[in-house]
Amino acid sequence: xxxxxxxxxxxxxxxxxxxxxxxxxxxxxxxxxxxxxxxxxxxxxxxxxxxxxxxxxxxxxxxxxxxxxxxxxxxxxxxxxxxxxxxxxxxxxxxxxxxxxxxxxxxxxxxxxxxxxxxxxxxxxxxxxxxxxxxxxxxxxxxxxxxxxxxxxxxxxxxxxxxxxxxxxxxxxxxxxxxxxxxxxxxxxxxxxxxxxxxxxxxxxxxxxxxxxxxxxxxxxxxxxxxxxxxxxxxxxxxxxxxxxxxxxxxxxxxxxxxxxxxxxxxxxxxxxxxxxxxxxxxxxxxxxxxxxxxxxxxxxxxxxxxxxxxxxxxxxxxxxxxxxxxxxxxxxxxxxxxxxxxxxxxxxxxxxxxxxxxxxxxxxxxxxxxxxxxxxxxxxxxxxxxxxxxxxxxxxxxxxxxxxxxxxxxxxxxxxxxxxxxxxxxxxxxx
Length: 432
Prior knowledge:
The chain is α/β, with parallel strands linked by helices and 432 residues long.
């Protein structure tokens, strides 16, 4: 089975190499990522690992990397002398990881070829591997077991869409899950699902969702004014933020924005596509619709402020919380198209009301809780998006009430980091 899997992956990898090369040329990405995916590191890059306790955290992309932030802070506090390494699959996740001060090294996760993962594990020699959410690579797991490296899954989840697929191959999945030392799952539903797939009951814990442990941020009127000045937005106008949008959603948001303007709303839009490299196409789409936009990467403090009807198109990384903080209403993308949604709690961290579409299977529990406490509103389509935005923009008291409800929800659900660290500590004792 593993030989066949290797052969399939080798064919896929051969097809992906030209894709990565084209991307590196087109978007200025580093070719280092291609080498690291095959287990080849630049000379001296791993020298800092010698003689140190090493904790390797793997987070596939941006969402998982952000979710891991509370855990990274907790690990740094509990294991101050250990080296914290984080690997990603995507370039955007890697770019976010490189800005995290708690990390000692960021690199690209290897292709799941048996020889590549063995090569990487022998070079890094981690004392513990921590996989964030649900990244189960058979060869990697097998190699970690063979080298007797403890392997834990944290913030684990099995969505309504992915669980039936895993269940179809649970006979193959059971021995892979048996190689894990611990499963820290987000909810009781996830606990039951991973046990159905073959995880041993004594290995599974309902630790809660790490996203609830992200730092709540107090945003004053002075903070909003300063942020609007920094982003060159009119200080007098309300702002709609549309974050983590995907293809198809930008068009819906832009049409909704135009309707609000024709109905007499003076408002600004800040649009943050999930993948920054798509911004050029989004800007062209806005131009065809007659909407003026400015790229965040090309803005400066000498630019005139953007006025009603104009759009700030964010093609940079690491600014989402600032964008949400200066906004009046937040729409989170990946939810009006069948992607599965993105993190809604970032809006609640800064006390903002959040709107999201019907496709929230990846954030099922969080969306349910936000709806229960009145911190968010779920809309079914483009028309409802417009109606909800119009209602919230006209009612500042309602916006404030929803934002406060979201912050209260976060404060009521903290503790996942401590519970996760307790489990991990069984496999990595604190050094004296």
